[in-house]
């Protein structure tokens, strides 16, 4: 297995829906093209931002097929994690023929596994996977945090666990991960507003929600950080910060879809149990978008 090294800006792609809540594959393909043309470093279909729990098997495979077809050799990190080993392995079997380069596997949700349970689960997934794996730690959604020591243990024991998307919001934990991570293990921010801090202290990149809206700008910030150009990175961070915060004014991806609608790229429709952005969120995102382009 070739060692994949993820760095820079990876966009967690939204899934556009039509007014009658069907997947808008045309808008999705255009969105993927926009990402590629804007210089993002890798793409992440079928994750949280893509409303993947609401998608059918056919929709998932078609979205991944379209993505692979349009990105050439750009790395694709596809979401496949569930809260059971069998469910995650079944997703891998379903999706692998459609060209992912690696899997994004979330810490199992609802079950609230212990650190030992998390370790055994990810080790079992890694042993059965033919592709590299990136752990996704997002305790605000799963109810269980993966501690730095568990992630390091997995990185050392499982050669095909190549990184972690860290969305715990705990900089002390992420800093420990960065300090102890083995060479070639990517620590990626799962929170746009923490990207500057993480990359400035040795993290490799971000899996971004905001880059759906501003792919060139978020990619440029990551490029600057990879070159240790903190002055440029700080300027971009401060320009983008209202967008970073606004994207979480309501549950992701509700606000980012409102922003994409403002740009005319897709509708703001989301599938139940999510509901469309409130009037105040639409107003907020409209202002953020207008101000962002004014400040260019």
How would you characterize the overall build of this protein?
The protein has 296 residues and is α/β, with parallel strands linked by helices. Helices cover 47% and strands 12% of the residues. An 8-stranded parallel β-sheet has the order 2-1-8-7-6-5-4-3. The longest helix has 17 residues, at 230-246.
Strand content: 5-15%
Tell me roughly what share of residues is in helical segments: 40-55%
**Strand/helix succession:** EHEHEHEHEHHEHEHEHHHH
The assigned structural class equals alpha/beta
Strand numbers in spatial order across the main sheet? 2-1-8-7-6-5-4-3
* Span between termini: 42 Å
Low-confidence segments, given as residue ranges, are: none
Pfam families: DHDPS (PF00701)
GO molecular function: 4-hydroxy-tetrahydrodipicolinate synthase activity
Catalytic activity: L-aspartate 4-semialdehyde + pyruvate = (2S,4S)-4-hydroxy-2,3,4,5-tetrahydrodipicolinate + H2O + H(+)
Active site: 136 (proton donor/acceptor), 165 (schiff-base intermediate with substrate)
């Amino acid at each position: 297995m070739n060692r994949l090294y993820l760095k820079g800006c990876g966009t967690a792609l939204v899934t556009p829906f039509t007014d009658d809540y069907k997947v808008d594959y045309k808008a999705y393909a255009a969105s993927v093209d926009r990402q590629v043309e804007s210089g993002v470093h890798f793409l992440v279909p079928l994750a949280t931002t893509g409303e993947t729990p609401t998608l059918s098997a056919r929709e998932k495979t078609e979205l991944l097929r379209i993505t692979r077809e349009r990105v050439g050799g750009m790395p694709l990190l596809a979401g496949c994690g569930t809260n059971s080993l069998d469910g995650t392995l079944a997703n891998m079997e379903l999706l692998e023929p459609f060209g992912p380069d690696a899997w994004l596997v979330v810490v199992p949700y609802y079950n609230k596994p212990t650190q030992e349970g998390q370790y055994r689960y990810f080790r079992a997934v890694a042993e059965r996977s033919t592709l590299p794996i990136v752990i996704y730690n997002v305790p605000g959604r799963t109810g269980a945090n993966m501690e730095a020591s568990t992630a390091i243990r997995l990185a050392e024991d499982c050669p095909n666990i190549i990184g972690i998307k860290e969305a715990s919001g705990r900089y002390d934990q992420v800093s420990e991960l960065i300090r102890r991570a083995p060479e070639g293990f990517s620590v990626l921010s799962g929170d746009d507003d923490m990207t500057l801090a993480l990359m400035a202290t040795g993290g490799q990149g971000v899996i971004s929600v905001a880059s759906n809206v501003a792919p060139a700008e978020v990619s440029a910030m990551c490029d600057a950080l990879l070159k240790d150009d903190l002055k440029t990175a700080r300027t971009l961070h401060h320009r983008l910060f209202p967008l970073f915060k606004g994207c979480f004014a309501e549950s992701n991806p509700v606000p980012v879809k409102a922003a994409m609608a403002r740009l005319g790229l897709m509708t703001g429709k989301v599938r139940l149990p999510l509901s469309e952005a409130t009037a105040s969120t639409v107003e907020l995102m409209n202002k953020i978008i207008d101000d962002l382009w004014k400040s260019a």
